[in-house]
Design goal:
Chain A: It is found in: Membrane. Chain A: Belongs to the cornichon family. Chain A: Keywords: Membrane, Transmembrane, Transmembrane helix. The complex is a heterodimer of chains A (139) and B (1208). Chain A has 139 residues and is an all-alpha fold. Chain A has helices spanning 2-31, 37-64, 68-86, 106-138. In chain A, helix 1 (2-31) packs antiparallel against helix 2 (37-64) and helix 2 (37-64) runs antiparallel to helix 3 (68-86). The termini of chain A are close together. The mean pLDDT of chain A is 86. By secondary structure, chain B is α+β, with helices and mostly antiparallel strands. In chain B, the strands form eight sheets. In chain B, strands 12, 13, 14, 15, 16, 17, 18 and 19 form an eight-stranded mixed β-sheet that branches. The two termini of chain B are 41 Å apart. Classes of the chains: A mainly alpha (139), B alpha+beta (1208). The interface between A and B is medium-sized, with 19 and 25 residues.
Chain lengths: 139, 1208
């Protein structure tokens, strides 16, 4: 059972890592002027909810399976994801708003956020890997 | 900050009309460019074979010929006024003389004269191009363009210019000489090229040193000029050693070069030296020279005199003034030297002094990177035309950058010695360096460079050898100069001012835009602060310094202004930097004849062959004298490379609310009336299309297809899934269906008089409009009178009337839905702009509706409580605004790119547009009333540069023009809803200043005088509708005010925030100015305080969009009778919006003053005559921002508050 939880987490984490990389690539495309803000934001907004769900699931899973440390580690990031999603002003087109993204250094902060998430997911990835192997051995 | 406007010319023929139209709007000069443009294309293909002579027969050709002849004839004959009576003769002159000219070596000349065959071809084409070029500047071109416009039957939108020109419409050959219109440019052109004076001057200076002068200079060389060149040279050389401490050999080298060059060409010497000693320096110099020339020419009398004056003045004052002037240069030089030597950072670089902000106007280079088909002929033509003086050219060409410096210096020192001095000191201050503390550092930094510089000062300049030989002297003088700087002539802007004790802080005259702290030469090159302005006059070197100053760093742009003099460049190639795509501009440096260095990314680029030829001077190898390098604001006519698609026709769609509410308000009558009147004046060409839609709970389309006997109304009631009933016939050609359109406009106001429909399906109507417009793009004008209540995009009322005056957080300032934003972005993607006219009496959620205009680069007009009978002043305003709106020039498919020096980056944008990528703003439409602002941050330290440049390029179709608007005290552009942020801005900046000024007592509130108005403006802003609290403010009013702040050009914005108050019952002719033969009195500005109002007086308040005339209770009856036309105070009616035209002196003065104020702004303001005691006076009094109101501080209290905050 334990192993199954971590296998799932591992896969989910892989997906989140890819998503982070995708965010970074798309944002840097925007930074370099390869795509315009409109298409960039519509691309990214599509993936905001999947990312949120994916991460929330892992977090909840950890809570359910009583892995407190990993849960607490995930909690801030998950909270941040939800908070960010909820706090989008009513007139904006999502977390990434094409009319705002070039203002007030938003692009940079989005970029920073994606980088941090990438690092975090990588960390999680190895943690899950380790836990999974441990669980498999114990079985 | 230069703008480049490129109007893509798709197919030669098609583009012409559109261009011409736009031209008429912009300027005289512009049109010429356009008109000419087609010729370039056409000529090579068809007419050329026939030879130049034939060209004249065709109208277009004739233009060409005229231009051509004008250019050529003038220079050769030294005739100031270009008489192009005979085109062919002119051209022939060219040819004939060309060979004889000293320049022409002989290789190619043969081809010239042998008018046959291909070579000839080439020549002619080339000649034409250039001529066109020139023509842009010269007035004649204008005429031709206009004429073409007239002939084509286009409406001439721009009244003044177009009218006159059109009347003369006959083809260019008619009346060149007499044209006054050519004005500055034209004159410049002539002078520069032809005018004996300019040339001679330069040459003269050189002549002393150098034996051979290539150019014939009729005039005796004025001695004064000589100084300048030597100065620069000496400065460089001395600098190099003093600063860098390089071995003396360098000097020798430098000298040698100079000497050799001097013999060859005086101009060249400077450049060579520069390039050798410090390549960077050139940046500065080339810039200088070009502007000088132009200025001299245009203001013939003014500039000319200074040089003469220089002489006497300079020697005497050489110690102080010259040194100061040079200081900046010196600093720059120092930097450069350091760089080269790769020595440790010198004091110069480290201090904040170096920071200069430079606003550059870009000019697009015609030639370089992108060459089209005709490019190949060009070089040939050059050679031939030039007379193949290639070798000469080379020698001189290298010097090309140099010559500029030489001429410039002269004018610069003379006119503005005083001003120059303040600059260096200024630079430091704004950034929070205390004056006293700075000084030592300052001296250290500047002194060494100065030493080099002083020699350059006039006295020395004459004698290069001396300067070089006696560096010690120079240094001494420079040191003195530095000292003097500190003490006396000090920069006015830095003078500390105790705000709490200064009672009359507002200057009597209108506040002028601050000018960047550049040395004079650069200043001249810089584009007008009205178009392009930086919030700071000096740029801090590091972000840390910027943070310390607490002032926002930003740019204010007002592109596409209605400009009267804008060089238009028609060419197949536009010279741009290869790496950053910057257009060539006056601030680039020419490293040698063949290469130029980009001033933004510092990449060295090749000068394209085509660019070597200067059509103005008709000489080869002087790329620095091309108009692109001489003018900071230039308009290019771009080749098809710049086009996304063939230019779209002008398409106008009107979406009108016809619900019960709208019919009640009665705006339809006014709109239809205005449209009928201005139908012919809509900017556009023969392809102009127009369409109408109305909506209530359903959407009505109007089929206006040509051939119908009357307009057909098509009703679509399915608002959930809107479709276009007949996509082809809803947008119709304005000229083919004019009768139908007129029928419709006549019928519309009465069609819905009995409607009972109260719903408004704005969203679906907009979707339909988008569908209709998406194939072409264009402009959608939406008239809305209530909250949209049906279909997509419906809105709820969010305003709670009880909260209007609350001092708490103001809610609902943001949009309620993203529907309008999405729609706007869709529209923007299809090059469609949505303009919103909101005429509502109740809350309509402007915050949400405004999105449709904000992101599609539209504009927003708001008429609160509009009713055609109950509120006649609003109705009148709508009428006037509509007139302006319908007839002003417009650019389609515009894209604006802002480039800045490496190390700076833009982080926030304000205005109506969509930011497509980091520096690219997409503007579906651009209109002359739009202003933009950009905030910058400093990402890399700018320690190794002394100039910061910004270039703005605006690309648009068929209407063109680009300019920049300004930022003033940056506050106005940075909108944060938190009022506290504003107060804190004052507190921070003042406290930052205070902490630097150590020796002043802290009890007083001290500000440098350049910032003395800052608190006042902030207070005004706080009391403005957008930010005020405690006063009842409608949400829509508030939001509208915010929109205005964001998108208005600063000039108009400032009046809105801080109105001007004049006393008008005692107008005199003292200080009056003359405008169009009318005497316009200039009464002094009054403080915005009730203390200035007296019962005996009458006052005019200029609030930008509204004028108030306040009549005191015991105002002189003579005034009331003479100006207002009523016998006494009691008989003045409550609502009075016009001044009667009375035949009295005081009435005339008052009216001419008001008219003058009105003429300066795009939207005609309404006039309210407010009697003391009338209920309307509260509106007047709320603008007296220095007074206390129930909820806000008076100015003095505000200052005390700030002081308190600082002391905390």
């Amino acid at each position: 059972m334990e192993a199954v939880v971590f296998v799932f987490s591992l896969l989910d984490c892989c997906a989140l890592i890819f998503l982070s990389v995708y965010f970074i690539i798309t944002l840097s495309d925007l930074e370099c002027d390869y795509i315009n803000a409109r298409s960039c934001c519509s691309k990214l907004n599509k993936w905001v909810i999947p990312e949120l769900i994916g991460h929330t699931i892992v977090t909840v899973l950890m809570l359910v399976s009583l892995h407190w440390f990993i849960f607490l580690l995930n909690l801030p990031v998950a909270t941040w994801n939800i908070y960010r999603f909820i706090m989008v002003p009513s007139g904006n087109m999502g977390v990434f708003d094409p009319t705002e993204i070039h203002n007030r250094g938003q692009l940079k902060s989005h970029m920073k956020e994606a980088m941090i998430k990438l690092g975090f997911h990588l960390l999680c990835f190895f943690m899950y890997l380790y836990s999974m192997i441990l669980a498999l051995i114990n079985d | 900050l230069s703008w480049k406007a490129a109007s893509p010319s798709p197919t030669p023929l098609a583009c012409v009309p559109s261009l011409a139209v736009s031209l008429s709007n912009n300027q005289m000069q512009v049109p010429s460019g356009y008109g000419v443009h087609p010729q370039n294309y056409i000529a090579p293909s068809g007419h050329y074979p026939q030879g130049p002579g034939k060209m004249t027969s065709l109208p277009l050709d004739s233009q060409c010929g005229d231009y051509y002849s004008g250019l050529y004839t003038v220079p050769t004959q030294n005739v100031v006024t270009p008489n192009t009576a005979n085109q062919q003769p002119g051209a022939q002159h060219m040819y004939g003389r060309g060979p004889s000219a000293p320049h022409i070596v002989g290789s190619t000349p043969g081809s010239f004269q042998g008018a046959t065959s291909p070579t000839l071809h080439l020549h002619t084409s080339a000649a034409q191009r250039y001529s066109h070029f020139v023509n842009h500047y010269s007035s004649p071109a204008m005429y031709s363009a206009n004429s073409s416009v007239a002939s084509q039957g286009f409406p001439s939108t721009c009244a003044h210019y177009a009218m006159s020109t059109v009347s003369t419409a006959a083809y260019p050959s008619v009346s060149y000489p007499s044209l006054p219109a050519g004005d500055p440019y034209g004159q410049q052109m002539f002078t520069s090229q032809n005018a004996p004076t300019v040339r001679p001057l330069r040459e003269n200076s050189f002549s002393d040193h150098s034996t051979a002068i290539s150019h014939p200079s009729p005039l005796p060389p004025p001695p004064s000029h000589q100084y300048h060149q030597p100065q620069s040279l000496s400065g460089c050389s001395t600098l190099s050693w003093s600063a860098s401490g390089l071995p003396s050999t360098q000097h020798n080298i430098v000298r040698n070069h100079t000497g050799s060059l001097a013999t060859a060409n005086s101009n060249s010497t400077n450049t060579v030296t520069d390039s050798l000693s410090c390549p960077v320096m050139q940046n500065v110099q080339p810039l200088k020279s070009s502007p000088v020339v132009s200025t001299v020419l245009s203001g013939a009398s003014s500039t000319r005199t200074p040089p003469a004056a220089n002489r006497p003045v300079e020697p005497v004052a050489s110690v102080t003034q010259p040194s100061e002037l040079l200081q900046q240069k010196g600093m720059q030089y120092g930097d450069y030297v350091n760089n080269q030597a790769s020595s440790a950072p010198t004091p110069l670089s480290s201090t904040s002094d170096d920071e200069e902000e430079e606003e550059e106007d870009e000019e697009a280079g015609v030639d370089s990177s992108s060459t089209t088909s005709s490019a190949s002929p060009m070089p040939n033509s050059y050679d031939a035309l030039e007379g193949g003086s290639y070798p000469d050219m080379l020698s001189s060409s290298a010097s090309s950058p140099a010559p500029d410096p030489a001429p410039e210096p002269d004018p610069a020192p003379a006119p503005a010695p005083a001003s120059s001095a303040p600059q260096p000191s200024k630079m430091t201050k704004p950034f929070g360096y205390g004056y006293p503390t700075l000084q030592p550092g300052y001296q250290n930094a500047t002194a060494p460079p100065n030493s080099g510089v002083p020699p350059s000062s006039p006295g020395y300049s004459g004698f290069q050898p001396y300067a070089q030989q006696y560096p010690g002297m120079n240094q001494l003088s420079s040191g003195l100069g530095g000292l003097s700087l500190q003490s006396s002539p000090q920069p006015e802007s830095l003078r500390p001012i105790n705000l709490t004790q200064e009672r009359n802080i507002l200057p009597v005259t209108p506040v002028w835009a601050p000018v960047p702290n550049l040395n004079l030469d650069l200043k001249k090159l810089n584009c007008s602060p009205d178009s392009f302005r930086c919030t700071l006059t000096n740029i801090p070197q590091t972000q840390a310094l910027l943070n310390k100053a607490k002032l926002p760093l930003g740019l204010l742009l007002h592109p596409f202004r209605d400009l009267t003099q804008l060089p238009v460049i028609t060419s197949n190639t536009i010279v741009r930097c290869r790496s950053c795509r910057t257009y060539i501009n006056p601030f680039v440096s020419f490293i040698d004849q063949r290469r130029w260095k980009c001033n933004l990314c510092y990449r060295v680029n090749d000068v394209p062959e085509e660019f070597m030829y200067n059509p103005l001077t008709r000489s080869y190898g002087e790329p620095h004298k091309r108009p692109e390098v001489q003018n900071s604001t230039v308009e290019f006519i771009a080749s098809s490379d710049y086009m996304l698609r063939p230019p779209q026709p002008a398409v106008y769609l009107f979406v009108l609310d016809v619900s019960h509410n709208a019919v009640e308000a009665g705006y339809l009558t006014i709109l239809c009336q205005s449209l009928l009147e201005n139908l012919d004046k809509l900017p556009g060409d023969s392809r102009t299309r127009i369409g109408f839609m109305t909506f209530d709970s359903t959407i009505h389309f109007y089929n206006l297809q040509e051939g119908l006997s009357q307009p057909q109304m098509l009703i679509v009631s399915d608002i959930d899934d809107v479709f276009l009933p007949t996509p082809d016939s809803l947008l119709v050609n304005l000229y083919e269906s004019k009768e139908l359109i007129k029928d419709l406009l006549n019928a519309l106001p009465n069609m819905f008089t009995n409607t009972r429909e109260t719903h408004s399906a704005l969203g679906p109507a907009l979707q339909a409009a988008f569908k209709l417009m998406s194939p072409t793009g264009g402009r959608v004008s939406v008239f809305q009178t209530q909250l949209p209540s049906l279909g997509a995009g419906l809105l709820q009322s969010r305003e709670d009337p009880n909260q209007r005056s609350s001092t708490k957080v103001v809610q609902h300032l943001g949009p309620a839905t993203d529907f309008y934003k999405k729609l706007a972005l869709d529209c923007s993607g299809q090059q469609t702009a949505v303009d919103l006219f909101l005429l509502s009496s109740q809350y309509s959620d402007l915050a949400s509706l405004a999105c449709m205009s904000k992101y599609s680069a539209g504009c927003i007009y708001y008429y609160p409580s509009f009713h055609y009978t109950h509120n006649p002043s609003q109705a009148e305003k709508l009428q006037k605004d509509l007139k302006r709106y319908l007839t002003r020039k417009i650019g389609f498919e515009a894209v604006m790119r802002i480039r800045c020096t490496k190390g700076l980056s833009m982080h926030t944008f304000h205005g109506n547009f969509f930011v497509r990528s980091t520096d690219l703003l997409s503007l579906a439409n651009i209109n002359p009333d739009a202003g933009f602002a950009v905030q910058l941050s400093i990402e890399e330290n700018l320690t190794d540069t002394s100039l910061v440049c910004f270039q703005t390029a605006l690309l648009y179709t068929s209407s063109k023009g680009s300019y920049v608007s300004a930022v003033d005290r940056s506050v106005s552009s940075s909108l944060s809803d938190a009022r506290d942020a504003l107060v804190n801005a004052v507190v921070d900046s003042l406290s930052a200043y205070g902490s630097m000024v150590s020796n002043l007592q802290h009890s007083a509130l001290i500000a440098p005088s350049s910032l003395k108005l800052f608190p006042l403006y902030v207070l005004a802003l706080l009391k403005q509708k957008a930010f005020r609290t405690g006063t009842s403010t409608r949400l829509d009013d508030r939001v509208y005010a915010m929109c205005q702040i964001k998108c208005q050009p600063l000039v108009h914005l400032m009046k809105m925030i801080h109105p001007n108050l004049y006393r008008i019952d005692r107008l005199t002719d003292e200080g009056a100015i003359h405008v169009n033969d009318k005497v316009v009195p200039q009464p002094p500005l009054q403080k915005l305080s009730a203390e200035k109002l007296t019962r005996e007086g009458a006052f005019l308040m200029d609030c930008g969009s509204v004028f108030y005339i306040w009549i005191g209770k015991s105002c002189d009856n003579h005034f009331i009778e003479d100006v207002l036309g009523y016998p006494n105070f009691a008989s003045i009616p409550q609502k009075m919006t016009h001044l009667p035209e009375l035949d009295t002196l005081s009435s005339e003065r008052a009216r001419s003053f008001i008219t003058w104020l009105r003429d300066n702004r795009p939207l005609s303001p309404i006039l309210h005559v407010v009697k003391d005691e009338s209920p309307a006076k509260t509106e007047f009094f709320q603008h007296l921002i220095e007074d206390r109101t129930e909820a806000a501080f008076s100015y003095y209290e505000f200052l005390l508050h700030i002081q308190h905050q600082i002391c905390k």
